[in-house]
Specification:
InterPro entries: YceD (IPR003772). Pfam families: YceD (PF02620). It comes from Acetobacter aceti. The chain is an alpha+beta fold. The chain has a domain at about 10-140. The protein is about 25% helix and about 30% strand. It contains four helices and seven strands. Strand 4 and strand 5 (about 85-100) form a beta hairpin. The longest helix is centred in the last third of the chain and has 15 residues, at about 160-175. The radius of gyration is 25 Å and the shape is elongated.
Length: about 190
């Protein structure tokens, strides 16, 4: 969303138009970003380029005014490889499930201990849910924070987090005095 509160990719849907939908017969809606919207999405997410973004939703209302949405998103984009600093093309195809919850029924809390696989609740005001904004938010969650161009391997000099932790433990163990070293010296000197 821009600083002025306007979404880069907005596709509002009136919740009351979903009344006839059900789990067995969901309402299907596809949203596709225009070229201009793709440029704005790339700027928002800090990507070199977003060539296309399409998301197909299956929507069905639940109790109250809550709407369960299953999305299938396909995005063609460019990313910056963290190892080579080269831009590379990528295609992301991802499925997700979200729940639009009226802001009046959403407690606004965020559970830090929640599982990553849990369904995200997205609060909305009034009678309108924004499928475009939801797609961009899901894309931001799906993106790899450390993208690598396919086929690029990590140079040996670059350590992984596990290797850094293991190295720190080994360094700490070497610096820590052995509590039995003094006893061992006394025993050697005394005998």
């Amino acid at each position: 969303m821009t600083d002025s509160g306007v979404s880069e990719f907005s596709r509002p849907v009136l919740v009351r138009t979903l009344r006839g939908a059900s789990v067995d017969s969901p309402r299907e809606i596809s949203v596709t970003a225009t070229a201009t919207e793709c440029v704005r999405i790339a700027e928002r997410l800090g990507l070199p380029n977003v060539a296309s973004l399409t998301c197909r939703y299956e929507l069905h209302p639940q109790t109250g005014h809550t709407v369960l949405a299953t999305g299938s998103m396909t995005v063609r984009l460019s990313q910056l490889c963290v190892l080579t600093l080269e831009v590379f093309e990528d295609v992301i195809a991802e499925r997700f499930v979200i729940r639009f919850v009226p802001a009046s029924e959403h407690d606004g809390s965020f559970d830090e201990n929640s599982e990553l696989d849990e369904i995200d609740d997205i609060p909305y005001d009034g009678d309108v849910i924004d499928l475009g904004e939801a797609a961009v938010e899901q894309l931001s969650l799906i993106l790899d924070p450390y993208p690598r161009r396919p086929g690029v391997t990590r140079p040996a000099a670059v350590l992984t987090e596990d290797e850094v932790s293991r190295q720190a433990e080994e360094d700490e163990a070497e610096e820590r005095p052995n509590p039995f070293a003094a006893l061992s010296r006394l025993k050697r000197d005394g005998s």
